[in-house]
Amino acid sequence: MKKLFFALLALAVLAGCAAAAGEETYRSGDFEYALLENGDAELIRYLGEDGRVIIPNKLDGHPITAVRGNPFAAYEYGFLSAVRDCSVSVALDHPYLATIDGVLFGMTDRKLIYYQPSLKDTNYEIPYGVTAIGKGAFAGCSGLASVMIPDSVTAIGEYAFYRCSGLTSVSIPDSVTSIGVNAFAYCSGLTSVTIPDSVTTIGDNAFSSCSSLSSVTIPDSVTAIGDQTFFECSSLTSVTIPDSVTSIGYGAFTDCSNLTSVTIPDSVTAIGDYAFYGCSGLTSVTIPDSVTAIGEGAFAYCSGLTSVTIQDGITTIGESAFAYCSGLTSVTIPDSVTAIGDRAFDDYVNREYIPLADLVFTVTPGSYAETWCKENGRQFVHTGVEYGDRTDWLPGR
Question: pTM for the whole thing?
């Protein structure tokens, strides 16, 4: 039935044309819409209260030939806030839309638009022929345990599986090239995910708050780890960042408290603000010489961190970069560093900022780092000198 539909879909007459939605929107009954350049209607939102919805062919005489995301999803301040649980149907001769087993599809763009949250299928197979999973298509489907995505799909849209808390597994095929913003955010039951080599873009917050996610494979095709991509993935124990990645975004791994190891490759040039903030399980980290700046709070509150090696090439250590790392005992600072931000290596005790108690810096004589240590009363030793050799100890006073 499902595959037959999309075989017939290929023969359907394409209606309407892709165009930017007009800035002005209109209301027709329980529906909000915008006009495309050719006069057709783009359905934006269902505004009614009825749980059974029939989407008409036309709105105020304009054929519906496009749908903007999930019309049953509501957004507040740009974030998805709620999804209406509606039983949806359309006319058999609808020029653009069709439903299969209660699931709403677009015919011209072959997009899965809306999967009703209360549908009883715990395992769902997306029909072959679908090329995109739309914005918020499965959002709020907490009873969904697994989804089979066919290799006809090339894009997983924003909020596609947002808050699918029962989702434990998902297989992303090699056909997919992009994973949208917040695509799997708050999928608290998701334990593992393999991202294929075809994917080149992973959106911000894509796996944010996936608290059961313990392993993830990032392919060589990805060049950037976006902002808060793995934010609060508290079960994540290790991650290998491929050599293709050049930047690690803002809060990319914030509060991944069980992350014990991370390998930062030589390809990375920027570590964003709060990138590893609160990763209390990290014990050591080596920052390669390709990195030029360590962002603000990048490793703050990494309480298990005992040693840090910063390779030559880094010029800036951001404000609070290693603040509150109470277990930190040794940091090597290269000659290339010319700026160390406020409270970069401070703790907060009894409502007062103080130097990390057991931290000893390894620096080169005459370097900026040595001058900084002296000016800020930090303990340091010169490169090549063992910490225990008291004859060569240089107290930062």
Answer: 0.87
